[in-house]
Every structure is written in C-alpha cells, then in structure tokens.
C-alpha cells in the first residue's frame, strides 16, 4: 500500500485518466480514448422508465428556476421516506451557486482573481507547480490543453490544476496500482484534500490546486464527492436503479462540472440564474459519463462491472448473464435505445446554457458536447455491439468544430427574470 501511495503523490507522477467534463475536452480532436474507468441536470431528463419522465407529484419541490426536482423523496422497502439522489445533488448545486453569487456581489461583474497565496519556501515553486500541471495536460490531454489556451492565463492555470487533481484521484481506483488501494488510502487522500484547502499542500501538484481554491470560489464538497465515487467503486459493481447510478455519475463526473464553473466563468450579461448554469455543467458531466457507460459495456463486463440500472435491465427481459454473454438481441437493442435516449436528454439540457459561460470558455465546451454526443450515434451505427468500440473519426471532429463555434455565437433570447 505504501508503495502505491508514494507513486501517487510523486511530483513526477504521469497521470493518465480522468472523469467527466474536463476529460471529454481531450476527445475533441482525438488524443486517445479519454477513458474514464467509472462511469443532470436532474431537472427534466431523469427517465425512470424507458419511455417517460416521472415527476414527484407528492412533494412538488421546485428549484429556484421553477423546474420541479424529480422524485425529491422516495420510500424505501421499509416504507421510510428517504431523500433521493437528485435532491442530495441539488443541495450541493445550490451551495456552489451561492458561493459564486456571493463573490459576484462583492467583486462586480466577474470573478475576482486574488493574488497568489504565499507558500513556504521559494515563491518560484508555485509557478513551477502550475508549469507541471500544464505539462501533464499538454502531454496527456492535448486537445483539452489547446482549448484552455483560449482562456485567460489565470483561468487556464486553475483549470490545469483541477484537471490534474481529478486525474490523480481517478488513478487511485483505476490506475496501474488500483489493486493496492484500500478505503483507508482514500481516507488519507481526503485528509490531504482538507489540508490542501487549508493552504497546506503536500507536494507540487497539490500546491497548484491550493492556490487555485484561494483565487476562485471553488468549494471543497465536489472534490470530496469525487473521492466518495472512488469509494463506491471499491464496494459496488452493480446499481439497482437509476437513482443509484445517477448519484455515482454525479460523484465521478458531475462533480467536475461543479468544480469548473467558478473558473470557466459566467458571462457578465447572462440573464439566467447561477444555479441554472451549474445545473447545465452537472448535466454535461452526467451525459458524458452515461455515454462512456454505454460505449464500454462489454469492456466493463470483462472487469466484473455492470454500470446499468438493474431494474431497467429486468424490465427489458435482460439480466447480468446476458451482459456477460455479450450477444446482441432485440431485447438488448430496445434497452440500449432507451438508455441512449436518456443520455441525449442530458446533453440537450447541458447545451441550453453553454452560451451563458464566459466567452473564452464556450467554444471548447460546446465542441466537446457536440462531439461526445456523436459517440451515441456511433453506438447505434455499430448495432449496439459489445466489442466494437464506438468512436468519432477525426474528419467528423474537424467538421464539427466550426459548427460548435457558430453555436456559441447564438445567445438565446430570454424573458426577464422576476426578482
């Protein structure tokens, strides 16, 4: 175990994998698989069945934007009322949005960038820390790196730091030393995170993120939640329903959207609530993760993992044995069509608010959204095959870039919001 942890925290660690919104950016022009070993806007797109959206009529909870929260409370088998995954995640969204709104009220129309924190020792170490994050991004996520160059220097450095921390976290349970990782190791990683947010970084890469969280209104909760997703991967290999899977998708991918919004920035002239922008970032993370689940069903099954709702499999007349067998049948095709429909709805919800981001952040995010959504088309083109990997060709990626740029120039007209 100690060997695995030493490898993880080394400043020279070559980090390979990541989850969610940021990792999808590296997909735009083809920097490899953008593999996320694990796999909503929870507003109007949480399909509880294959054909319709179900809203909670009992409690009628609504967000600040007036959109109902789906199934905010549900009954467990014992008849006890428990809070649903959507409600839990929504509470985190509200907290993140409140942090940004508070800083905007005190600093004007844009997020204020504070001076670098004073770290012990030579101040040049902080610059070296960001340079190392830049090198990791440039080497292992080339297109993502190019996309960050469209941002201001302060924002791009912060995104590099967040990206690298997410990669290192993902490596704990999905990297070459994953077999050595225990829940106690994740506890130690979380303790390091606490120190990092208190200005006590352990190593060079920690120092970059420690500085970032002092400059932008980035909260620790999404980072802790991502670690919780790693814990889930240690103890779970199946998910009984979409409520469980949704929470997992939030932990390992939706969190990245919440981490990134304060750095990506919201357009000064945006007419939507901060909450709405956060919801869209969350939706994109969930959409990307669902897409990876559907793309990697066969590969995950070989690792003994099935990231599909067990109850929906049963409703389709399928079971785990069918997934392990990897045979394409009409039942499998019907099931996959319903899962792809759900993923597309999350993409649609995310796309609505991309133009509300700061101008420099829109193009790379829109490009990643449009291109990652095309993976779903390729899954269909492959006839939902378990072994033939769905990918978007470089030609299609290049053709999509000007389309993505054009879409970022079109801001939807919106009615004034009531205060």
Task: Give a structural overview.
The protein is mainly α and 419 residues long. It contains 17 helices and 2 strands. It has helices at residues 2-9, 20-25, 85-107, 124-140, 142-148, 153-174, 183-197, 204-215, 221-235, 242-264, 274-295, 297-302, 310-315, 320-325, 330-351, 359-381, 394-408, and strands at residues 73-75, 81-83. The protein has a two-stranded antiparallel sheet with strand order 1-2. Helix 4 (124-140) crosses helix 5 (142-148), helix 4 packs across helix 6 and helix 15 packs antiparallel against helix 16. The longest helix is centred in the N-terminal third of the chain and has 23 residues, at 85-107. 47% of the residues are buried. Residues 1-74 and 109-122 have low confidence and may be disordered.
Q: Count of helices?
A: 17
Structural class: mainly alpha
Order of helix and strand elements from N to C terminus:
HHEEHHHHHHHHHHHHHHH
Helix content: 55-70%
**Sheet having the most strands:** 2 strands, antiparallel
User: What coarse outline follows from CA principal-axis ratios?
Assistant: globular
Q: Could you list the spans in which at least 5 consecutive residues all have pLDDT below 50?
A: 1-74, 109-122
* Residues in β-strands, percent: under 5%
Question: Kindly, what is the distance between the CA atoms of the first and last residues, rounded to a whole number of angstroms?
Answer: 54 Å
């Amino acid at each position: 175990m100690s060997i695995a942890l030493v490898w993880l925290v080394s400043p020279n660690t070559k980090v390979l994998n990541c989850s969610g919104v940021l990792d999808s950016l590296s997909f735009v022009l083809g920097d490899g698989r953008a593999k996320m070993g694990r796999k909503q806007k929870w507003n109007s797109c949480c399909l509880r069945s294959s054909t319709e959206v179900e809203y909670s009529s009992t409690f009628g909870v609504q967000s600040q934007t007036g959109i109902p929260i789906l199934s905010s409370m549900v009954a467990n088998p014992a008849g006890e009322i428990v809070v649903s995954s959507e409600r839990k995640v929504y509470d985190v969204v509200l907290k993140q949005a409140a942090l940004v709104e508070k800083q905007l009220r005190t600093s004007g129309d844009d997020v204020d960038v504070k001076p670098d924190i004073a770290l012990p020792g030579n101040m040049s170490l902080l610059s070296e820390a960001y340079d190392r994050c830049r090198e990791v991004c440039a080497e292992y996520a080339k297109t993502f790196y190019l996309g960050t160059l469209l941002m201001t220097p302060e924002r791009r450095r912060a995104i590099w730091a967040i990206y690298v921390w997410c990669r290192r976290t993902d490596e704990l349970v999905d990297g070459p030393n994953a077999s050595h990782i225990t829940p106690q190791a994740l506890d130690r990683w979380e303790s390091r995170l606490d120190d990092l947010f208190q200005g006590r970084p352990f190593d060079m890469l920690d120092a970059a993120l420690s500085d970032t969280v002092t400059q932008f209104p980035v909260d620790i909760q999404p980072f802790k939640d991502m670690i919780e997703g790693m814990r889930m991967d240690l103890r779970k290999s199946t998910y009984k329903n979409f409520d469980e899977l949704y929470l997992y998708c939030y932990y390992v991918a939706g969190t990245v959207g919440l981490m990134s919004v304060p750095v990506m920035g919201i357009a000064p002239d945006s007419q939507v609530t901060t909450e709405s922008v956060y919801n869209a970032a969350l939706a994109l993370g969930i959409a990307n993760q669902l897409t990876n689940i559907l793309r990697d069903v066969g590969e995950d099954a070989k690792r003994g993992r099935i990231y599909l709702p067990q109850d929906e499999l049963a409703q389709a007349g399928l079971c785990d044995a069918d997934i392990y067998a990897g045979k394409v049948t009409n039942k499998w095709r019907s099931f996959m069509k319903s899962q792809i429909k759900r993923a597309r709805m999350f993409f649609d919800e995310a796309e609505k608010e991309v133009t509300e981001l700061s101008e420099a952040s829109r193009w790379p995010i829109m490009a990643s959204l449009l291109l990652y959504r095309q993976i779903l088309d390729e899954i269909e083109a492959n006839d939902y095959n378990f072994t033939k990997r769905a990918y978007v060709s470089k030609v299609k990626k290049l053709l999509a870039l000007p389309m993505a740029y054009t879409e970022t120039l079109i801001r939807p007209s919106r009615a004034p919001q009531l205060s």
